[in-house]
Design a protein that fits this description.
Elements (H helix, E strand, L loop, with lengths): L3 H15 L6 E4 L16 E7 L2 E6 L3 E6 L5 E6 L10 E6 L3 E6 L3 E6 L7 H5 L11 H8 L9 H4 L11 H10 L13 H21 L6 H10 L26 E5 L2 E5 L7 H5 L1
Antiparallel strand pairs: 1-6, 2-3, 3-4, 4-8, 5-7, 6-7, 9-10
Helix pairs in contact: 1-6, 3-6, 5-6
Bound molecules: zinc ion.
């Protein structure tokens, strides 16, 4: 599933191509949009907000398209003259005089008067959005230390959209590694400095991933990776997808465990459990 930073980048691409341009044609092939052409044609997209992994496409008609890509949804952007072939099911196409933005395969799509989307059950349940500038490390620290989070395992907190909106499977492994947090530890097991570090890493790594298009390692490691000419997947992460390979910090073999049915890769040396040390 794409994570918050990928969704924000998809929103940027759609904005760049059709924002502020008169909508000339629209195809509404999802039941949540059917028959609402008049809200689109002769209006334009004013901007796109993202909330975690959901996209809110704002129309000058005063309406907002809510869409969540889940596992399969995908946005594409083409010149208006291009008619792309795809095996995916088209849900929505917005055409201006220059470009067409299309949403494929997504099933979770709805229309709201702008502002009223805040009553959507998914939106109301979200925790702080890791890419929102208002989600400062101090806000994220408060969230980690909150009664709803502080006794929960790091591995489950880092995937729960009600705790932190926008994090997904690879960010979970990467954040816990960089913050030196064992996946079984809870915020309550860590001292204040450690929690602060964790909160800062959540913020910094989410932003970096957005800026780099999915590279979680720091600039120096990324430059060395690029120079090595090895495939990007072999160097873009510190630990994720690197089971059995050397930890970049201490050379211990990376270990894989499954949490909530999904893989988590970590370094047993760098991420020593504070919980075990206490007992
Ligand atoms: Zn290590």
């Amino acid at each position: 599933m794409p994570e918050g930073p990928e969704i924000r980048r998809a929103a940027d691409r759609v904005e760049k191509s059709i924002r502020g341009k008169l909508i000339l044609e629209v195809e509404l092939l999802h039941p949540g949009l059917a028959g609402r052409e008049s809200l689109f044609v002769n209006h334009y997209v004013t901007h796109i907000d993202t909330r975690g992994k959901a996209m809110l496409t704002r129309l000058s008609s005063g309406w907002t398209i809510y869409s969540h890509n889940q596992l399969y949804g995908r946005w594409t952007v083409n010149r208006a003259s291009t008619n792309p072939h795809s095996n995916r099911a088209l849900r929505l196409a917005i055409t201006t005089d220059s470009h067409t933005a299309r949403l494929w395969s997504a099933t979770d799509i709805d229309l709201f008067r702008s502002g009223e989307e805040n009553s959507h059950p998914f939106i109301t349940s979200l925790g702080p959005d890791v890419l929102n500038p208002e989600s400062t490390p101090s806000v994220l620290l408060d969230q980690l230390a909150s009664t709803s989070c502080r006794r929960r395992k790091a591995a489950s907190l880092m995937l729960d959209q009600r705790a932190f909106a926008g994090l997904g499977n690879y960010l979970r492994s990467e954040i816990l590694f960089k913050a030196n947090v064992h996946p079984d530890d809870r915020p309550d097991d860590l001292d204040k400095d450690h929690l602060e570090r964790w909160a800062t890493v959540i913020s910094q790594m989410s932003l970096r991933t957005y800026q780099t298009g999915g590279i979680t390692v720091d600039k120096k490691m990324a430059e060395a990776g690029k120079a090595s000419k090895r495939p990007r997947r072999t160097w873009r992460h510190y630990v994720f997808n690197r089971e059995g390979l050397d930890c970049p910090a201490c050379a211990t073999a990376i270990v894989r465990k499954r949490y909530g049915g999904r893989r988590l890769d970590f370094c047993p040396t760098c991420q020593i459990s504070k919980r075990d040390l206490k007992t």
